[in-house]
Design brief:
- The complex is a heterotrimer of chains A (387), B (314) and C (295).
- With 387 residues, chain A is α+β, with helices and mostly antiparallel strands.
- Chain A contains nine helices and 20 strands.
- The radius of gyration of chain B is 29 Å and the shape is globular.
- The relative contact order of chain B is 0.11.
- Chain C has 295 residues and is mostly helical.
- Chain C folds into two domains: 54 residues, no CATH class; 171 residues, MetI-like (MetI-like fold).
- The longest helix of chain C is centred in the middle third of the chain and has 32 residues.
- The chains are: A alpha+beta (387), B mainly alpha (314), C mainly alpha (295).
- Chains in contact: A-B, A-C, B-C.
- Chains B and C meet through helix 2, helix 3, helix 4, helix 5 and helix 8 of B and helix 3, helix 5, helix 6, helix 7 and helix 8 of C.
Chain lengths: 387, 314, 295
Amino acid sequence: MTQTETPESSGGDVRLRGISKTYGSFTAVHPLDLTIPAGSFFALLGASGCGKTTTLRMIAGLEEPTTGTVELAGRDVTALPPYKRQVNTVFQNYALFPHLDIFENVAFGLRRRGIKSVAPQVEEMLDLVELGPMARRKPQQLSGGQQQRVAVARALINHPEVLLLDEPLGALDLKLRRQMQLELKRIQTEVGITFVHVTHDQEEAMTMADTVAVMNGGRVEQLGAPAELYENPATTFVANFLGTSNLIAAEVTEAGGEDLLLAAGGATLRLPARRCRTAARAGGQVLAGVRPEKVALAHADDAGEVPAGHNRLTGRVKDASFIGVSTQYVIDVPGVGELSVYEQNIGRDGRLVPGAETVAHWKPEHTFGLDAGQDISAGADLGEEAA
Amino acid sequence: MTATATPAPPGPQPRTEPAAPPLRKTPARKRLIPYWLLLPGILWLVVFFAAPLVYQASTSLQTGSLEDGFKVTWHLATYWDALAEYWPQFVRSVAYAAVATVLCLLLGYPLAYLIALKAGRWRNVLMILVIAPFFTSFLIRTLAWKTILADGGPVVGALNALHVLDVTSALGITEGHRVLATPLAVVCGLTYNFLPFMVLPLYTSLERIDPRLHEAAGDLYARPVTTFRRVTFPLSMPGVVAGTLLTFIPAAGDYINAELLGSTDQKMIGNVIQSQFLRVLDYPTAAALSFILMAAILAMVTLYIRKSGTEDLV
Amino acid sequence: MAATDTPAKDPAAAAAPAAAPAPAPAPRRTPGKGLRWLRRNLVTLAGLATLAYLILPNAVVMVFSFNKPNGRFNYQWTRFSTDAWTDPCGVADMCGSLALSLEIAVWATVGATALGTMIAFALARYRFRARASVNTLIFLPMAMPEVVMAASLATLFLNMGIQFGFWTILIAHIMFCLSFVVTAVKARVMSMDPRLEQAAQDLYATPVQTFLRITLPIAAPGIAAGALLSFALSFDDFIITNFNAGSTVTFPMFVWGSAQRGTPVQINVIGTAMFLVAVLCVLVGQLAGKRRKRS
C-alpha cells in the first residue's frame, strides 16, 4: 500500500472511533480514538493486561468492540468478520498450522481467496524470508526464528492494507530478537504496508516504530514519536515505564516567567515553563523529573566547578555499580530521596565511592514537570519487568 | 489517568469519550450454536440412558405378573425382599471386585511403571502387547482360562505339587484340589479382564511426570524406594484413582466371570439381575436389584473421589 | 555440596563424596551377585510377569485354534489339526453372527462418533448454561455398571412394546459409546490452540472453511481414537447386547451360547485372526509413520 497524496483518500489509514471493549464488569479498553496513518510503523506499548492486544484484535476483527467503530482506508469494517478484512495478523507464538507444511501455510490465504496458481508467489515470498529450501517441512521442524519468518510471510503474501503483529518476537531469545527487529523494520520500509505492532518491550517499540502509543489500564497514556515520548513524558507512568526517571516532589516558588522556580530539599530547581505538563502557580506542587543519564556528578571538593545555572542537589553516594558502558550511582539527597545517575565511563572519578559527598547537577532544560496528583511510582516496576 | 489535566501536548492525542454509544450484542443465532451441537447427542443420552433409569425406578415399585401386567403400587417391600434374599450376592460382588481391584493395582503398577519409565525404545512394543489382547473377544479369552485352570492342567498340577491348594482350601478360596468353580478362579478372571483398564490410566499419569523430578529427588538424598513413595506414587495418584474406578465399577457389575469360571456358590449380583430379568421375568425384582447396585456404586465412587481429592476426573 | 554435614543415613550416598569424614559405614551385607541383579530388576521382572498374565490367554486361544477336540468342548488339547482354519465358517450361524456384529459396530461407530464429536466441540469451545449437568450426563454412563444400563434400557423397550433386534442393539451401542467419544475428542480439541482458527479466519477462511481445513484435521486424531474405541467396545459388547437383542445373535452372544452348548474350534480361529489383524495394522501404521518421519 502506498501513501496517496490526494486529500480525499485516506489510503490505508486505520481509524478507531470511540472503540471500547468490556467483558462483564471488566473494561479491557476504555473508549478510544486513534488514527494510524497509512504506511507508518505504529507500536502499541504496555504491560500485560493493559488492553493493547484487545485493541489489536478489534482491528483484526477477532474481537467485537463493545462500542465504537473501526475504519480501514476510509471504510467502516466494524461489522465485517476477520475473513472479509484486508488485514492480516502475525500471531503471538505464530499459530502456524501444524498439519500443513510451510508452503501450504504461506499459500493458505491465497487459496482461500480463490487464487489458482499460487506457487510463484509463495516461492517468491519464501525467498524473501530466506526459507525457500524449507518449503516442504512441517512447522514443528523449524526453529523459533524460522517459524517467526513463516508467520510474517504467511501474512504479507496477501498484501494486506495493515499488518498486525501481536508480540511477534516474544518467544525469541535476545540476540535473535534484535536481529528480527531490524529485519521487520527493513521489510516494512520495503513493502510500505502499515504495521501495527503490539509489544511490552519498550526498547523494541522505540527501535522499530515511528509512532508509539503507551497504554495503561485500558487507556492510551501518551502517543508520539519515540524520542518525543522519552524526552517529554506526559505522565508518571510514561516517565517510569519508558526508561527510568528521577521524579522529585517540589513546591513552586515562582511562576510566570520563562522558567518556573521550584523548591525541593532546600535547593532551588529551574524548570522551563513550556516543559511543565501541569498548570503551575506559586505555592502549588509539581513533580520535577530528570532522566538519570542527563545528570552529572561532581565530588563535593569540586563543587565550585559545577557550571553556573545548573540545577544542583547535594547528597551522598549510596551505591555505585559498574556496568561497562556506564556506572550507575544511587545518590541519597536529604529531603528529596534517592536519585539515579548514569555516568558514562569517560573519566571516572575514583573518589565517588559509597559514602562520598557529591553534587548532582543537570541543565535546567533537561527537567520536565508533571502533575503532582499522580502516583509517583506508576509503571516503575512494570518497566523493569518488561525490559 | 491524569491526562485531562495536561495541556495539549504536541502530536496526535487520544481523547477519551465520555458518552458511551449503545452496546452491541452477539446475535441469538450465534449464541444458540452450542445448544444445536449438544441437542442430538444429549437427547440420545436422555432418552436411552437417563429416562430408562427413571423408568426402572418406577418398575421397581410395581407389582403384578407377566400375564396380568404390572402396576405402580409403591410396593417398597420388593427392595426389602430383594435385599433379604440376595445380600450374599451383593457382599460377594463388592468383595470380589475390591480384591480384583487391589490385585489389578499391584500387578498393573509395575507394568505401567516399566512401560512409562524403563522401557525406552521398547515402549511401543510393550504398549501394543497390552492393547492387542483387546482385539480378541473377551468372552473367548475368558473361556481360555477354563483351559489354563483346568483340573488336570499344568497350573493346577503345579499348585497341587507345591501344596498351595491345600493352603487356599483351608482359607476357603478354593475347594478340594481344583481351581475352577472356586472364588479364586472368578477373582483371577476379573483381575485379568479389567487389568488393562488399570494399566492404561496408570501409564498415562506416570508418563506425564517430568523425569527430572526423579533425578531431583535422588539429588536431595532420597533412596529409590523413598523417591517412589514420596514423589512418583503421589504424582501418579490421578492414574491410581481413575484406574481403580475403571476396574471396580465394571467388576462389581460383572456376571460373565462368575458364570464361566465359577459355580453356583460364586454367583454375583450381576448373575441374579440377569436371571431375574431374562429367565424368571420378575422385572420389579430385577429393577430393584439394579437400582440398589447403582446407588451403592455411585455412593462408593463419590465417597472415594472425595477422599482421594481428585474431583476433576470428568 | 552439603553431603558432608548431613547424617549419612545411606551408606551408599555417603560414600560418593570422597571428602565425607567416613563415620565408618558399616559394611553392608553384600548379597550375592544374582540377588543384587534381582533387586535391581525387580520392577522389570514384575512388569513382564504381568504382561505374561495378560497375554497367556491369547496364546492359549491361538494354540487351541489348531486343536481337534474329541467332544463338543475345546478345553483340552487332543491333537494338532488345521481343520478349523481351512473351514472357518463351518459352524452353523457363527459367521452370520460375526457379520452382524461387524455391521452393528460400524453403524454404532458412525453414530456415536458423529454425536459425540458435536458434544465434544460444544463442551470444549463454548460457554453455556447447564454445562455442569451435561458433563455429569456424559460421565455417568462410564461410571455405571453395564448390567444396570442394560436392564433399565431393556425395561424401557419392553414397556414401549418395541421389538428387540438390530435397532435396539444399535441404539444401546451408540448410547454407551457416546461418552467415550466425547472424552477422547474433547481432550484433543481442548489442547488445540484457539489462535489457529483465528489465524485461518484472519487469512480469509470463512467459518466453514476454517472448520474443514483447520479444526477438523487437527482434531482428527482424537476423533479417530474415539471411533476406534467405539468400534472395539461395540464389537466386543456382551452384557448390554444380551439384554437388548431379543432373539438376534451377535458374535459375543454366539460365543456365550457356545460356552453352554459346546465351543467350536472356529471361535478360536476368529479370535486369533482378529488379534493378528490388529497387530498387523499397528505394525504397518508404525512403519508408515517412521518412513514419513525419515523423508
